[in-house]
Amino acid sequence: MRGTGFRRDAAQAVVACPNYSTLNLVGSVNIFGRVAIALFVPFAVAVYLAARGRWSPTKTTVIVLLAGVLLLPSVHAIDWPGVPKLGKREMAVLGATLGLLLTYPARICASPGRAVWIVLIVYPVSAFVTAFTNSDMLQYGPRTLPGLRPYDALAMSINDILHYVLPFHLGRVLCRTSEDVRVVLRAWVAAALLYSVPMLLELRISPQMHVWVYGFFPHSWVQASRGGGFRAQVFLEHGLTLAFFMAVAIVLAAALTRARERVYRIPPGALLLFLFGVLLLDHSLGAAMYAFACIPLVVLTGARVQLLVCTVLVAISISYPMIRPSPLFPDEQIITAIEGINAERAESLAYRFRHERLMLDKAIERFAWGWGGYGRPRIFDPITGADLSTQDGVWIIILGARGYVGMLTTFGLLLWWVVYAFIRIGRFRDKRDARLVAGLGVAVAITGIEMLPNAPFPLLPFFLAGALSRLARELPAQHLAYRSHRS
């Protein structure tokens, strides 16, 4: 108890310090973190070899992806010459892909489908056009930003494949049956249940797990303090990232509750209430609002209604980046409305809108293909070269780097399948399967909304979108075949 009190007092002293930005909170990863990143791919392959014949490839893949995202150190990446940086998300995808190639090659080598082939063409082409239109060097006082080369286009293409296309492909080729969708939902909810243990610890003593295990804190410490307490982070990049992961787990637990599916002999309703209680303790208003809105939607309405609401959310996610540059966008009205609820949140939103406007003004200068990498989309002081920009939402990050072509390709790969599931849901003959697939649709749709103000956890939403695309197509045919066989 004495050690716990010391940790809490120390954390509160740091948060209260007006010069917290000068403290060495973000340091170098320790040797354990380097080893964890470097050895994750061999570890993943060993898991596949050991699990073959015991677990389905779907279950093994979900466990490997969740382990990589939830347990590996954040921010740190291996930076070998001539190779794009390899962090937790890249290692998780590479481990799952190599493991499947060695154990289930026919599954991983299956055709990805027409939509993925289109994306596989658009991403490299747009990357090379971005590099070609950004060969100029940028100068801001003493700061020099290099122009892009063909190598940079290749690196951008590889990143697109690792971050978006491969996770989507894994979900698409692995999730084909009723059992597969149950495996995905149960594994996610079980991971959230296990993660709630260190999460509750951090809510009590402040976010310390990343420091204890990997030797550094991956984000600004001041953002860990909320409402007189702490916001948990564990091994994720930010407390908001963890809160949204728990919100998605709550959505999936609600779908399991509606379908009356247990999670490893535990009633899903009990898990739903427990996870919701943990999220309420986390001082994350946005994630709590997702849970408040989605629990009654998933538990009380049918699959068609859920996916209809999700289709509306998809329309908002896609249209927001299109209408945000307009001077008619009601910035002030939204801030005034939020101010009547919470002045602190209104101030934060006003700050976000100001920086979005600055980033948009620059992004529009090269709106089709973007500015590329090396910090070129960011705002710098023309005299001192100081970085003046703050990027929060995924949409503005992608828009600045890859333009509207890259942004719409990424959002389309993630969100189109929610609309597709809504079109197909009337063909489902098993209501329990329909409810589980609708739960997946809700999880993907709120990810699209979350990508507007924040950066959700990496790669996993694209795996869910891939699963949704295949299940929406395959399950109705399987239901008809089963009914024909029974008759």
What does the model show?
Helices cover 67% and strands 2% of the residues. It has 19 helices and 4 strands. It is globular and about 65 Å long. The longest helix is centred in the last third of the chain and has 31 residues. Helix 5 crosses helix 8 and helix 15 runs antiparallel to helix 16. It has a two-stranded antiparallel ribbon with strand order 1-2. By secondary structure, the protein is mainly alpha-helical. The N terminus is likely disordered.
Short structural description:
The chain has 487 residues and is an all-alpha fold. The protein has 19 helices and four strands. Helix 14 (303-323) packs antiparallel against helix 17.
Query: Count of DSSP helices?
Result: 19
Amount of beta strand: under 5%
Cα distance spanning the termini: 66 Å
Q: How many β-strands, per DSSP? A: 4
Mean pLDDT, all residues: 85
Outline, from the CA principal axes? globular
Helix fraction bin: 55-70%
Biggest sheet: strands side by side, in what order? 1-2
Largest sheet: 2 strands, antiparallel
Structural class: mainly alpha
* Cα gyration radius (Å): 22 Å
Elements, N to C (H/E): HHHHHHHEEHHHEEHHHHHHHHH
Low-pLDDT parts are: 1-26
List the helices and strands and how they pair.
Elements lengths: L1 H15 L14 H8 L1 H12 L5 H15 L16 H16 L1 H4 L5 H19 L5 E3 L2 E3 L4 H25 L3 H28 L3 H6 L10 E2 L2 E2 L8 H20 L9 H13 L4 H16 L2 H21 L7 H9 L3 H21 L30 H31 L6 H20 L9 H27 L1
Antiparallel strand pairs: 1-2, 3-4
Helix pairs in contact: 3-4, 3-5, 4-5, 4-9, 5-8, 7-8, 7-17, 8-19, 9-11, 9-18, 11-12, 11-13, 11-18, 14-17, 14-18, 15-16, 16-17, 17-18, 17-19, 18-19
